[in-house]
Amino acid sequence: MSDYQVKTVPTKAFQDQRPGTSGLRKRVPVFQQEHYTENFIQSILSSIPGGPKDTTLVVGGDGRYYSNEVVQKIIQLSAGNGVKKLVIARDIIFSTPAISHEIRSRKATGGILLTASHNPGGPKADFGIKYNMDNGGPAPEAVTEAIFAHSKELTEYKLVDLPEVDLSQLGERQVGPISIEVIDAVKPYVAFLKTLFDFDAIKAYVHQPDVSVLFDGLSGVTGPYARDIFINELGLDESSIQGCEPSPDFNGGHPDPNLTYAHDLVKAVEEKQITFGAASDGDGDRNMIYGAGAFVTPSDSVAIIADWAESIPYFAKGGVKGLARSMPTSTALDRVAKAKGIEHFEVPTGWKFFGNLMDAGRLSICGEESFGTGSDHVREKDGLWAIVAWLNILAAADKKGIKGIKGVLQDHYSKYGRTFFSRYDYEEVDSDAANKVIKELSDLFASSDFVGSSPTATSSSTSFKVAEVGNFAYTDPIDHSVSKNQGHYVTFSDGSRFVVRLSGTGSQGATIRLYVEKYSQDSSEYGRDTQEGLKPLIEVALKLSKLVEQTGRKEPTVIT
Ligand code: VG1
Ligand code: CO
C-alpha cells in the first residue's frame, strides 16, 4: 500500500451540483470542466453514511458518451478515499434495476450509477451521476442534500494516480490499494427475473401462432439483457428485437419509450400488426407496452399489474403487501387497491420515495405515469421486469379467453371504469417564465373564492367545479421526513384533476409538466381517444395557469 501515494488535489467548489429527481444531470461539457466531476464524486464518497473507508461499491451505467472517463475517475478517487472494492460491469453496461439487484444480492455499501436515463447522449448531450444506498435504492433526500452541501464547500479531493483499468476483461484484480471486480452484469439479473415469473407459461404463450413480439432497446443499456431474455430464454428469433446494440449516443436518438420517441417501434407494431410491442429507456428502468391498436398508459399498466398480481409467481408466493403511485400518476391504481382491500400510498415524483415503504414491508407494486413500473424485487423501477410481467399476465389472461393487450384493457375498464390520463411537457422553457406559471397557481389557490368556482372550457362550454387545491407535501410514513412543494394540483367535483410541476431531471432551462386526468364509468367512452376526452380539462388548466401567456408556448414539446 505504501507504494501508492494518496494525492490531495486543491479544487474550487461549484454551486450547481444539487441532485435532482434522480441524480445530477448536466450537459457533457459541464462535467468536462476541470475538477467538476471529481468534486461531485468526492462529495458522494464523503456523504456515504459511515464514510467511504473499507466500503464496496457497485459501478455501472447506460454506457453513454463520457462513461469510461468518469469510471476511471471513480476508480482513482475511490482508491484515494479508502474504498475497499469496486464491482464494475463489463464495458460499464449495467442497467439501473440490475445495479439495484447487484447491490442487494452482494450486500454492498451502495452504488454509483452513470446515466442521464432517457435524456439523449453524446458530446453535447447529457450525462448523469447518481448514488444508491445499501438497500439498492436511490439515496433519500437527506443524503442527496448532504452531497449538495458538501459540493458547495469542498476545497480538495483525494485520489491515487492509477493506470487506466481495462473494463472489457472479466475477473477480479488488485489495482494499487483497491480491488476491482469486472462482472457479467446480465446473467445474474436475468437469472433473478426467472425466479419471479412463470417463464414456462410465457414461453408457451409467445410461441402461439397468432402471437408476435417486438422489443426495442432504443440503443440503450437493455439490449444485451433483452437478447438473453427474448432470444436465449424464450427462444424467439432475431426479428423479435431491435435497437439492442448499446450506443454511446443512442444512435442519435432520444432513448425515451413513449409514443413520440419510440416511433420506430410504434410504426413496426402497426405495420406488422404485432400483438406485443415493448420498449425501454437508456438506463433500462422505464418501459412502454404497445400492441397493435392498443397503447397501455403507464397509469393503467401499474393498476393492471396489481390486479393480475396473483398470476405472477413472486406475488402468488409472497402476497401483495401494498400499492403506491406518484402523486401525478392517475388514480386507476387506487381503485384496484380499494377493491382488493390493500393499503395504498401516494408519494411525490421520483422512485426514491418508494424505498422506505418497501423496506418496511408495506409496499409490493408501484408505478409512475412517466413509464416507470416496478416492485419490491429491487429498489428501482424496472423496464424489463414490467415487460415480462405483462407477458406473464397476457399468458394467464389467454387461458381465461381474454385475448391480447386490448382484451386485458377492455376487461379492466369494464371492471373498474376508465381513467383518461395525459401529460403535456414544455421543455427548455425560460426559468423565470416557468416560475411565473407556478406563482400564478399559488396566487389563485390563495384567493378565497377559487375553491367552489366553476371555470369553463369555452370551446365546449364544459365547466368544472373546483373541489380542492394544494401544493403537494408528503410525510414519509416510516421515517417521518417531510417533502414539500411537490406539485400544484386542482381537483374538481367530478373527480377529474390537473397537476402542474417543474421537472427535476432537465439539464437546461426549466421543463413544465402538466398532468390531466378524468375518470369515466360510461362504457360508451371506453374506446374514446384520450386527447379528445381530455380536451375541455386541458383548456381549463392552461387558462388557469396562464401557461401560454407566460411562456409563449402554444404547444407542448411532448404529449404522452
Ligand atoms: C422524471 C419523471 C419521474 C421519474 C424521473 C426519473 O422526473 O417525471 O416520474 O422518476 O424522471 O426517471 P421529473 O422531475 O423530470 O419530472 V429516469 O428513467 O429519468 O431515472
Ligand atoms: Co431511466
UniProtKB/TrEMBL annotation:
The protein's required cofactors: Mg(2+)
SUPFAM superfamilies noted in UniProt: Phosphoglucomutase, C-terminal domain, Phosphoglucomutase, first 3 domains
Molecular functions (GO terms): magnesium ion binding; phosphoglucomutase activity
Region (Disordered): 1-23
Chief location: cytoplasm
Domain Alpha-D-phosphohexomutase alpha/beta/alpha: 17-157, 188-290, 302-400
Keywords annotated in UniProt: Cytoplasm, Isomerase, Magnesium, Metal-binding, Phosphoprotein
Gene3D superfamilies xrefs: Alpha-D-Glucose-1,6-Bisphosphate, subunit A, domain 3, Alpha-D-phosphohexomutase, C-terminal domain
The protein's Enzyme Commission number: 5.4.2.2
GO cellular component: cytosol
UniProt xrefs under Pfam families: PGM1_C_vert_fung, PGM_PMM_I, PGM_PMM_II, PGM_PMM_III
Catalytic activity: alpha-D-glucose 1-phosphate = alpha-D-glucose 6-phosphate
Compartments (UniProt record): Cytoplasm
GO BP annotations listed: carbohydrate metabolic process
Similarity comment: Belongs to the phosphohexose mutase family.
PANTHER family xref list: PHOSPHOGLUCOMUTASE, PHOSPHOHEXOMUTASE FAMILY MEMBER
Name of the molecule in the record: phosphoglucomutase (alpha-D-glucose-1,6-bisphosphate-dependent)
Species per Swiss-Prot/TrEMBL record: Rhodotorula paludigena
Organism lineage string: Eukaryota, Fungi, Dikarya, Basidiomycota, Pucciniomycotina
